[in-house]
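Morning run. Coffee first, then this:
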Amino acid sequence: MEADGAARREQAQAISNAMTRLHHEHYGRGPNNVSTIVGHDHVISFLEDLYTPSERTLLEGGEVEAVRETRLAFQRVMETRFRAAIEEASGRKVRAFLSQVTFDPDISVEIFVLERDGADPAPEGVA
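And here it is:
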């Protein structure tokens, strides 16, 4: 069981690094903090302090919806890259991707639902 925990921690770190790299490459700035949880059939990444200076200016000016729409459009365009990063790190296919942003606090959450592993189904009560 300890080896399983170590493998999940390694996967989580690889995914956090990939999410940071992808944001930095395509937004010009990555989040200051990324925390990833690898579950049995899902991966969840929390990205904090991620807005660019121009987005912060818009937010200060009350243009919350403009920033939200831009961020969500970015997530749609980046979905293929995000999925590939998760699939590479987990060795499993992503069957669904969900994304949401908040502004106070400055957090984005990326949720990846993995294809079920028929050879190793989740034990009762384990997500």
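The mean pLDDT is 90. Good start to the day.
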